[in-house]
Design goal:
Elements: E1 5-10, H1 15-21, E2 28-34, E3 47-48, H2 58-62, E4 67-70, H3 77-82, H4 84-91, H5 93-101, E5 107-113, H6 135-150, E6 155-159, E7 161-163, H7 172-182, E8 188-191, E9 194-195, E10 197-199, H8 200-211, E11 217-220, E12 227-228, H9 229-240, E13 247-250
Parallel strand pairs: 1-2, 1-4, 2-3, 4-5, 5-6, 6-11, 7-10, 8-13
Antiparallel strand pairs: 9-12
């Protein structure tokens, strides 16, 4: 019988990280990590790592995992725009500190974003040159390049919009709708944004399978079709049984760069490149 492999999920408070941390996979022992400010993580026994702080990676150097899946980062587009130095320090500085600590023996997977692109009618594949609109997207592009330059054997997985439960029950498109409706708070979604929305558990399973492969370079988590934000909100509200009224605002009227039509597709044709089912076409995953 083969030995169990250890997997660190760095940034386990994100939607994708939280799902990865709670995905049981035979042969893998999942160890979640989060920043020292991660609420509710202490009682779970999680490791605490402020990714941009080199000293916080000491435990990894002492007992390196077999696989490291890196999901950490400041993902709030507005916050990154308002505090660009902070965004660069965490999103790129964290990756640099991680690369300084992780040994070559550890399989490395960086979870990136469709925010490396701006939006256009044609599909985006792995070889499409990035054209980020936002500070957040720029930090993601730089992080990808840093990883692939320093670790050519690493894998970068670009994920668009994972839909699933959050750690605190308030963030992510699903819990955001559920929470704000329960509190009687207004809800506004963006018209003109189309993205590859997939169930987070489908994405997590695919990423853990990719992590156990020897694939390298860039991979997209493609969806069977893209979802418009109002269409996605209507689908989730129907699944949740919410008779919710929400406002719709055009992306062009927003005071910050906002994604347009981003259809993540792939130029690969192996089994691990098959598109994942779009949320708007699938049964509900509570």
């Amino acid at each position: 019988m083969s030995a169990e492999r250890t997997v660190w999920i760095v940034g386990a408070t994100s939607i994708l990280g939280w799902t990865l941390a709670n995905t049981e996979t035979p042969g893998l022992r999942i160890i979640p990590t989060c920043s020292r400010h991660g609420r509710g993580s202490a009682e779970r026994g999680w490791l605490h790592i402020n990714v941009e702080t080199p000293a916080d990676w000491a435990e990894l150097k002492q007992q390196p995992p077999d696989i490291l899946v890196y999901c950490a980062g400041v993902c709030n587009v507005q916050r990154c725009a308002a505090h660009p130095k902070f965004a660069w320090a965490v999103n790129l500085g964290g990756v640099e500190a991680m690369l300084d600590a992780v040994p070559d023996s550890t399989r490395l997977v960086l979870c990136s974003s469709d925010h490396v692109f701006a939006g256009r009618p044609e599909p985006y594949v792995e070889s499409t040159p990035p054209d980020p609109l936002s500070v957040y997207g720029q930090t993601r592009v730089a992080s990808e390049r840093c990883v692939l330059d320093r670790r050519p054997d690493a894998l970068v997985v670009r994920v668009a919009l994972p839909i699933g439960a959050s750690m605190n029950g308030r963030v992510g498109h699903l819990d955001w709708l559920r929470y704000r409706h329960s509190q009687g708070l207004p809800m506004t979604v963006v018209r003109g944004e189309h993205r590859a929305a997939v169930w987070a558990d489908d994405g997590a399973k695919r990423i853990l399978t990719l992590a156990q492969s020897d694939l390298r370079g860039i991979r997209h988590l493609a969806a069977t079709r893209v979802s418009a934000r109002p269409q996605l909100a209507a689908t989730l509200c129907r699944h949740l049984g919410l008779e919710a009224a929400y406002g719709v605002v055009a992306r062009e009227t927003l005071g910050r760069p906002h994604l347009g039509h981003i259809d993540l597709q792939t130029e690969h044709r192996d089994a691990l490149a098959a598109p994942l089912p779009a949320v708007i076409d699938e049964p509900f995953r509570p």
